[in-house]
Amino acid sequence: MPMDTNIYKDQLNTIPELSTINESTITELESGAAVTESMSALAYTSSEERTQMANIMRMGSNLPPEFVNQNFEEYDRTNENKIWAYDLILRGDISNQLKNISSTYKEIKRLNNETLSLNQKAANDFESGDSKAYAEDLRNTANNLRQYNKTMEKLKTQLQNLINQLQQ
Description:
This protein has helices spanning 2-18, 23-39, 47-60, 65-68, 70-88, 92-128, 131-167. By secondary structure, the protein is mainly α.
């Protein structure tokens, strides 16, 4: 069990590296959405400029989901094996905590994939000059990023609880 404690401490310590999204960045997305929608801002940008900018946006969010989610995939595989082991030694409390953590990893992966999809949709709506749809994409992205931050905080709490259980 001390080895498992170290594994989960390492996971907890990597969360800052996986990062949460700064609230000011999220607020900027929402402000941008309001301005874009209220002024129909994209109507004042030439088609060529919109296409150039959309291509830049696409390149910036062109990471494959497998790359974005690679740490979570690895952690999830580790947890699946550990769940089984703790069930076998009759430590259902730890097994249940690991199941909750696995569920949270799956939620993070879902949010990552959704963000990548929203980014691509935003680039398409920007290119087409649809200010209203683009503004909605920005709002949806902001909401998704807030949910991501909440889920990361939940994961930190779950990992800390698991570490505490393992140290008992």
